[in-house]
Structure formats: C-alpha cells, structure tokens
Amino acid sequence: MYKNKIVSAIIPAQDEEQSIGKVVSELRAVQDDLNNFIFDHIIVCDNASTDSTAKVAQSAGAQVVLEAQPGYGIACLTALAVMPESDIIVFIDGDHSFYAAQSLPLIDEICQGYELVIGSRALGKAQPGALTLPQRMGNWLAVKLIRWLWQAQISDLGPFRAISTQALNQIQMQDTRFGWTVEMQVKAIQLKLPIKEIPVDTRPRIGKSKISGTVRGVIGAALGIFGTIFKLWKIEHQSD
Questions:
Q1: Is 116 exposed, middle or buried (0-12, 13-18, 19+ CB in 10 A)?
Q2: Strands of 195-199's sheet in order across
Q3: Would you call 197 exposed, middle or buried from its count of C-beta atoms within 10 A (0-12, 13-18, 19+)?
Q4: Which fold has domain 7-237?
Q5: Gyration radius from the chain CA atoms
C-alpha cells in the first residue's frame, strides 16, 4: 500500500512474450524513497495471443486473465473485471516502450488530488524510433481536434496513465477497441475532472506493433480514435 492507497497496474498484451516479463518485473520493482513497493496488484490481460505471453507474465509475477476477443479496450475491461479493490489504477503497454519507474510520479499526482494523470510522450524524451510517423501524425491531429472541440490543453493521448477508481467509475468506459484512451480522456474533460499531464520518456518497443506496424492497424486505430471523438462530441451536443 502506497500512501494508504491500494495501487494496481493493468497491462493489455497481445503476442508480447519477448517484452511482457520485463514490464511486469520492472513494475514489481518500483519503490518509493522508503523502499516500499508501490504496486499491490499487477494484472495482465492476454488478448488473443498466439505465443507464450500469458505464461511469461505469470512467471514474472502477474495475475493473468484471458480475453479471446481482440481489442485494446476489451482487454482493459476484462482486466478491470477481475481487479481486486483498488484506489489507483495505472495503465501501461506490454511492449516495454515505457519506463515502469516513471509510474511513480503519475501515482503521486493522483495522491495529490488529480483524478486522471496522463503520461505525455510529447512532453518527455523519445529515443529514435520510439514513435512511428503514423503514431506521431495521428496523435498530433487527434490532440488538435480535442483542443478545438473542448478547448482543452492536452498534448498527448498516451496510453501510460494513472486514474483514480472513483474517476473511472464516473467515466463508465465502454469502448472495446482503439478508442479506449481517447474515450477516457474526453469523458474526463466533459466531466470537468482534475486532469494533469506529466512528461514520460519512450523507447523503441520490443517486437512489431499490431497497430502502427501494419496498414490495417493504422487504419483501425484512426477510425477508432476519430470515431470516438466525434461520437462523444455528438452525444454532448444532442440536446443543444
């Protein structure tokens, strides 16, 4: 328990056997200044993997849940369904592109009263090759659109983030695919929840991305992200 808060990490993972063990082990090693371990629970959702992701994650010390339906959002929802009672939830990818130790500043901001804290890749340092051109362009355009529609000062839709359980319950997440991160962010803006961005660093992922590494993945992500933005804007203005 960290500052009287129960902290859990959720990792959606598909075919990440090369990296998932590193991510889980590094999360388990995160400590505060008093050498207290931060994470009470680490849950990996093996999202229709065809490799040994589940076995490696379990061997590294994570609780593993299986989800046969592919989709980032459904993987997160499935993990949340089995998550023990928690106060703070950290979402992080299983590809080792983020630094687990940088989860501590995210958690600290939640402890200070923020409800959603986004690890911003735009504010942090990115190693060469950490972000593909489709990732950069899609994120830039989506951020610009959200700024314009909601006058929100955001810089990134980064998947490395922390949220209070209270806020997550208010938001009532529904997206099962690529719109998950933007749904969380936009709904938090709509609900006027206290939100903060802090810098996080990125490095090249281990293995090939199922999203930015394929044409189908890029198109699917774009449709999911922008479709979610317009859907949420439309719902908000239906009564206008």
A1: buried
A2: 63-67, 41-47, 7-13, 88-91, 161-164, 116-120, 195-199
A3: buried
A4: Spore Coat Polysaccharide Biosynthesis Protein SpsA; Chain A (3.90.550)
A5: 17
DSSP letter at 131? S
Per-residue pLDDT 10s for the chain (240 aa) are: 899 999 999 999 999 999 999 999 999 999 999 899 999 999 999 999 999 999 999 999 999 999 999 999 999 999 999 999 999 999 999 999 999 999 999 999 999 999 999 999 999 999 999 988 888 888 999 999 999 999 999 999 999 999 999 999 999 999 999 999 999 999 999 999 999 999 999 999 998 766 555 556 667 778 889 999 999 999 998 855
Predicted TM-score (pTM) of this structure:
0.94
List phi, psi (to 5°) of 211: -105, -70
Q: How far apart are the first and last CA of the chain?
A: 45
Q: Any idea which residue has 């992701």 for tokens?
A: 53
Could you give phi then psi for residue 75, rounded to 5 degrees? -65, -45
The amino acid occupying position 64 is V
Residue 80, CA distances (Å) to 9, 63, 76, 97 in order = 10, 12, 6, 22
Read off the tokens for 197: 């961005």
Lookup result for tokens 């803006």: 189
β-strands 7-13, 88-91: how paired? parallel
Pairing of strands 41-47, 88-91: unpaired
